[in-house]
Design a protein that fits this description.
- There is one protein chain.
- With 135 residues, the chain is mainly beta.
- The protein is 6% helix and 37% strand.
- It has 1 helix and 8 strands; from the N terminus they run H-E-E-E-E-E-E-E-E.
- Strands 6-5-4-7-8 form a 5-stranded antiparallel sheet. Strands 2-1-3 form a 3-stranded antiparallel sheet.
- Strand 1 and strand 2 form a beta hairpin.
- The radius of gyration is 15 Å and the shape is globular.
- The chain starts with 13 loop residues before the first helix and ends with a strand.
Length: 135
């Protein structure tokens, strides 16, 4: 069992958590307007269509913005980055950056990132990001 907050899947987000357990970052795309979006929902936020499909994303993105938190949270000793990652497919999502120093010198805006997965429980795996190989 983990000390970290463990998300509780809903029917609308279950595909996201199932994908993470398989090592896939799953997004949704509208079949009508082709908008790719996050967070998960049963309709397109751009055009309102319910004709949406789930697909595995590339797992690549760039560091859009971040803060370095110096106050601990359960399972997260300080300092740690709370980041906005701009995914290659277009959407942005909030995550943590792993496998690098949690300093402004190491966390450079627009740095290439790739997804990594942190198992929290037997049922929940959390997508996180780390500097991309070769970056």
């Amino acid at each position: 069992m983990t000390e970290r907050f463990v998300p509780k899947p809903t029917p609308e987000t279950q595909h996201f958590w199932d994908g993470a357990a398989r090592g896939e970052l799953c997004l949704q795309r509208c079949a009508d307007c082709e908008q790719t979006y996050f967070p998960p929902r049963p309709f397109c936020p751009e055009c309102g269509s319910r004709d949406v499909a789930v697909f595995p994303a590339s797992g690549r993105g760039t560091l859009y913005s971040y803060i370095i938190n110096h106050i601990g949270a359960p399972g997260m000793p300080p300092p740690y980055a709370v980041a906005i990652v701009a995914l290659e497919e277009g959407p942005r999502l909030m995550s943590n950056i792993r496998d690098c120093d949690q300093t402004p010198e190491a966390l450079v805006l627009d740095m290439p990132l790739e997804v990594t997965f942190e198992p929290l429980t037997d049922d929940i795996t959390l997508p996180q990001f780390k500097p991309a190989k070769g970056a």
